[in-house]
Amino acid sequence: MEQLAGGLELERYARQLKLLGEDGQKALKEATVMVAGIGGLGGTAALYLAAAGVGRLILAHEGNILAPDLNRQILMDSDHLGQERMSTAIARLQRLNPHVAIEGYNSKIEYNAARPWVRDADIVIDARYDFPERYALNRLCVDTNTPMVEAAMYGFEISLTTVIPGLTPCLECLYPDVQPQWEPFGFPVLGATSGIAGCLAALEAVKWITGVGTTYAGVMHRFSSLDFACYSVHITRNPNCACCGEGGKP
Ligand SMILES: [Zn+2]
Description:
Layout: H1 8-11, H2 14-30, E1 32-36, H3 40-52, E2 56-60, H4 85-96, E3 101-105, H5 111-120, E4 123-126, H6 131-144, E5 148-154, E6 157-163, H7 171-174, H8 191-210, E7 219-224, E8 230-234
Parallel strand pairs: 1-2, 1-4, 2-3, 4-5
Antiparallel strand pairs: 5-6, 6-7, 7-8
Helix pairs in contact: 3-4, 3-8, 5-6
């Protein structure tokens, strides 16, 4: 705890030290988490990871703040409508916790550009909304052997699993084809639902980094925020998966 001791930085974590221990807090401080997408889901995850004291965050999200973002994208605000999402989010996170090193890229997830970000991360949170980017991120995590929290929501429904390359199913094991009916723009979302999904994703990352508790590795968790029904099922790899299986591309 050397680098945390002797100041306000350690004091701010006083209420969670009893849960994570000093070793857990130190592990968070030394960790790098990439959050791909800082909208309703990823922005919530980034907020709680910064609050928890993750040492370095790498963020990626393109574009400017639009009015329809504001029902869920809690890192954004009305004063910055029309301005870049990423710079607004970084400023918000740094106000929350100035001890976190934050890198942000005003960018979608593209394999070559995102490779160094994924390679540097101890764990990645996939909070993108469209499947091409999700597949690119999944491929990157498999290629770099980086764990990935696969979190998604649609309407009132949430699904979450944690991918450990080589051990658990990857995204392409679960969804081998891009779903043609997928409509990424204008999908229905209530902020509280995407916030729950973001909190679950942040918790997965904290558990993975600190070793406290059990992650959803190899387990698909589904939750309905409408009636609070939930269930978990064990999931298995597809040996012929085009990404992580024997049929995988070189
Ligand atoms: Zn796979």
